TrEMBL record:
It comes from the Eukaryota. Residues 57-383 form the PORR domain. This is PORR domain-containing protein. GO terms for molecular function: RNA binding. InterPro entries: PORR_domain, PORR_fam. It comes from Acacia crassicarpa (northern wattle).
């Protein structure tokens, strides 16, 4: 044995020590331990690993990419509208808004990509380059505002359903303000809706709104219409459809062994519906954790169904956890049910979509507000394509200095010269 120890020491002098050690160091790979079996450790499954291993939906991600550009354009319009000097602003001033609007390119190149939205002209007095929105984009923004005003009663219905889902019948105004665009609410909804319909809403304090009286007519979830349709048209039993959800597996989803049986048992699992008021489910009871999770899925499903575009940012859902009594990890629940929800990571935030509401990247049941926003998105998709309206020479806008023609060669050269001035104005 002593000879073997000396032989091992001569072969691996830097790895083996003959002196006894009090600690238990890790055994390095060598001649005498190459056949030792290492214990297999199960890989950790977390929300981050689920997010990285999920099946990518290219059509929804492409739609989200265009929506982020539209969001930047609307932020520019909001900043430009808040200025009192006029409905235009200098390009040099716009270059200072890059950090505010979250733009990672120069403002000059961004304006040059969308000539159907931005209009560039020299200031008649100061002679510096200024920018304003085109009449077509202004008309679409006005159309969206008119649609929101016409859908005022629908907005009241959405607010009442959200308050009925709350445990105490109250919600934070700040949480509603974060998703006011998703719910189709005006910017001044606190005065125009909450202050106008005092018979339905009551301001508890400066930050909370309370439902005055529950209307059981609104206490039916949107998923119940799908369940009734499945029960009548497909002749399914009530046991199969009473607590089921529409399942749309994405293309390329790998179905593991036993997944269909688990999904079938989960579809039949009973849960407390969003508008029901029953005793709390104990986690230690049979199926307690699964029922908690399924109730959270139902609440998020109902919240997404009440939005205009059937999507909302994941971080904004965290503001409703306490009011809706969601005691599970929201992101983990969304990723655990890829057949119902889809999380897009395009942009700086994560956005969750309702799968059943979209088909090939388009909303199946659009509303008037969505149609107005879709027209603005179509204008963004045009980019710098030469349409008939863009090719035609614009009329004089107050004088020969403001004349801009984008159809002929001189107009294109002038536009290129303007773009170079944009680039220089971004980097003074």
């Amino acid at each position: 044995m002593k000879f073997l120890a000396v032989f091992r020491y001569r072969i691996f002098p830097s790895q083996v020590s003959l002196e006894p050690s009090t600690s238990s160091p890790t055994v390095s790979f060598g001649l005498f331990n190459c056949l030792i079996q290492k214990r297999w450790r199960k890989p950790t499954v977390s929300a981050q690993t689920r997010l990285e291993d999920r099946v990518i939906d290219s059509k929804i991600d492409k739609l989200m990419n265009h929506l982020n550009k539209l969001k930047i354009i609307l932020k520019i319009h909001q900043l430009m509208s808040n200025r009192r000097r006029g409905p235009f602003v200098s390009v040099q001033m716009m270059s200072r808004w890059r950090s505010i609007i979250g733009l990672n390119v120069s403002i000059g190149s961004f304006i040059h990509k969308y000539p159907h939205i931005f209009e560039v002209f020299p200031h008649p007095i100061r002679r510096n380059l200024c920018c304003r929105f085109t009449s077509k984009m202004k008309a679409l923004i006005k159309e969206e505002e008119d649609a929101i005003e016409q859908q005022e009663l629908e907005a009241v219905r959405r607010l009442k359903k959200l308050l009925m889902m709350s445990i105490n019948g109250t919600l934070h105004i700040h949480a509603l303000r974060l998703i006011r665009r998703e719910l189709g609410l005006p910017d001044d909804f606190r005065d125009s809706i909450l202050g106008k319909y005092i018979g339905d809403f009551r301001l508890v304090d400066l930050e909370n709104v309370e439902l005055v009286d529950r209307d059981e007519e609104f206490g039916v979830a949107e998923i119940e219409r799908w369940r009734e349709k499945e029960y009548r048209e497909k002749w399914l039993s009530e046991f199969e459809t009473k607590y089921a959800f529409p399942v749309n597996l994405p293309t390329g989803f790998r179905i593991e062994r036993g997944y269909r049986d688990k999904m079938k048992n989960w579809q039949r699992l009973q849960y407390t519906k969003p508008y029901e008021r029953k005793e709390a489910i104990r986690v230690r009871t049979c199926g307690g954790v699964e029922r908690y999770e399924k109730r959270a899925v139902a609440i998020i499903h109902e919240l997404l169904s009440l939005t205009v575009e059937k999507m909302v940012e994941v971080d904004q859902l965290a503001h409703f956890r306490r009011d809706f009594a969601i005691e599970v990890n929201v992101r983990e629940v969304l990723l655990r049910h890829p057949a119902i929800f889809y999380i897009s990571t395009i942009g700086k935030t994560q956005t969750v979509f309702l799968r059943e509401a979209y088909s090939k990247g388009c909303l199946i049941e659009p509303s008037t507000i969505y149609n107005a926003r879709r027209k603005m998105l179509d204008l963004v998709l045009l980019r710098n394509r030469k349409t008939k309206q863009l090719l035609a020479c614009d009329k004089f806008r107050g004088g020969s200095d403001n004349e801009m023609c984008a159809g002929n060669e001189d107009g294109e050269k002038e536009l290129d010269r303007v773009v170079t001035l944009f680039e220089s104005s971004d980097h003074p």
